[in-house]
């Protein structure tokens, strides 16, 4: 018993380094959100980011119209846009997810911008983010705080 | 994370389908860094010798463009309050340095802050400690930063936000200068990573 527990513990510590776990996903109606992640912050002065993948299995467009989270008073949907070699961030009112399609909020494109951060985001912790969909309503997902150096979700997307 | 899910038979199938979809995107050239990028090498910002800016490094040292002559230099504009594009650029550069290995020791990499109000040398040092230690930060008075941007033919613009805070739009490419101080190439944010390192090597080859 003790032996198998010890073996499981060893396995548990080795696994993250050798293989990604499957992403946490939340399904509500036709919408599935998964692979929610953010980067650790230095203090609370800088805005944090929010990245996630949204899949629409329905037969019509769905729209992400906003996000909410207890860790930030002013969360917004943004898009990084390149124009004539310059990077600009623009606020987006909604992100459309076409039928039988998926949209990723990912570095260099759409992202959630978590402004007026209420707490430092510490690597290894999670925090909830509620995505507000026009048809499917609010969907809440646990968001993994990854190192400041992370460039993608630390899990396997089953999309 | 749910490790048990890995063992589930279905997961492998789903992953395989995901892989095929990814290959499909790759082949169709839809991925952002597969898009064609044109090099924009103008006359302004093309020669370190002709520049006159002076900035302060994250270690508190005064730096001038002439001090970079003799080594290959990578320069990009950004700010530490930038949550999306700037960490991405820093991560890309860290990857290039890793790929270059010991060859990268002859490189100088500089982030010029377009947000001198918040990015003091101390703030830059704190932030950059999270990335490759070969990346240095430069900042200065608003006038000094404006002069540097002008010399490099870079643009930036402070954009106020509703809550009284602000963000900064800025030139996003990484400029590569050869050891003679001449602009060798610009690596675009969405450039295919496999072209980035050869561009740096090309500039380094001019070292005698």
Automatic annotation (TrEMBL), chain A:
Residues 1-21 form the signal peptide. Keywords: Signal. Pfam families: PCuAC. The keyword Transferase does not apply. The keyword Oxidoreductase does not apply. This is Copper chaperone PCu(A)C. It comes from Paracoccus aestuarii.
Automatic annotation (TrEMBL), chain B:
Cu cation binds at residues 82, 86, 170. Disulfide bonds join 82-86. Keywords: Copper, Disulfide bond, Membrane, Metal-binding, Transmembrane, Transmembrane helix. It comes from the Bacteria. Residues 39-208 form the Thioredoxin domain. It holds the Pfam family SCO1-SenC. The chain crosses the membrane at residues 6-26. One of its GO terms (molecular function) is metal ion binding. InterPro entries: SCO1/SenC, Thioredoxin-like_sf, Thioredoxin_domain. Belongs to the SCO1/2 family. This is SCO family protein. It comes from Paracoccus aestuarii.
């Amino acid at each position: 018993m003790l032996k198998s527990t010890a073996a499981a513990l060893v396995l548990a510590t080795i696994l993250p380094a050798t293989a990604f776990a499957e992403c946490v996903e939340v399904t509500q109606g036709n919408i599935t959100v998964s692979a929610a992640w953010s980067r650790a912050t230095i203090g609370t002065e800088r805005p944090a980011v929010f990245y996630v993948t949204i899949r629409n299995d329905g037969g019509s467009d769905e729209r992400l119209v906003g996000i909410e989270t207890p860790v930030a008073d002013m969360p917004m949907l943004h898009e990084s846009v390149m124009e004539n070699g310059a990077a600009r961030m623009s606020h987006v009112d909604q992100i459309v997810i076409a039928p039988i399609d998926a949209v990723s909020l990912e570095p260099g494109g759409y992202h959630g911008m978590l402004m007026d951060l209420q707490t430092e985001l510490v690597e290894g912790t999670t925090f909830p983010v509620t995505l507000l969909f026009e048809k499917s309503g609010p969907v809440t997902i646990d968001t993994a705080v990854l190192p400041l150096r992370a460039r993608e979700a630390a899990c396997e997307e089953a999309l | 994370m749910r490790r048990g899910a890995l063992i589930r038979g279905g997961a492998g199938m789903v992953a395989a389908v995901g892989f095929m979809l990814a290959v499909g995107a790759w082949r169709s050239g839809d991925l952002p860094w597969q898009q064609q990028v044109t090099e924009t090498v103008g006359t302004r910002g093309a020669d370190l010798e002709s520049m006159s800016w002076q900035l302060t490094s994250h270690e508190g040292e005064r730096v001038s463009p002439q001090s970079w002559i003799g080594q290959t230099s990578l320069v990009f504009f950004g700010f530490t309050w930038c949550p999306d594009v700037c960490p991405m650029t820093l991560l890309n550069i860290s990857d290039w340095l890793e790929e270059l290995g010991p060859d990268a020791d002859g490189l100088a990499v500089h982030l010029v802050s377009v947000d001198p109000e918040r990015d003091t040398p101390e703030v830059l040092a704190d932030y950059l400690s999270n990335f490759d230690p070969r990346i240095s930060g430069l900042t200065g008075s608003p006038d000094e930063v404006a002069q540097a941007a002008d010399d490099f033919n870079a643009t930036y613009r402070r954009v106020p936000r509703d809550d009284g805070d602000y963000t900064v739009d800025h030139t996003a490419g990484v400029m590569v200068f050869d050891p003679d101080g001449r602009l060798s190439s610009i690596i675009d944010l969405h450039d295919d990573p496999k072209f980035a390192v050869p561009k740096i090597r090309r500039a380094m080859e001019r070292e005698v």
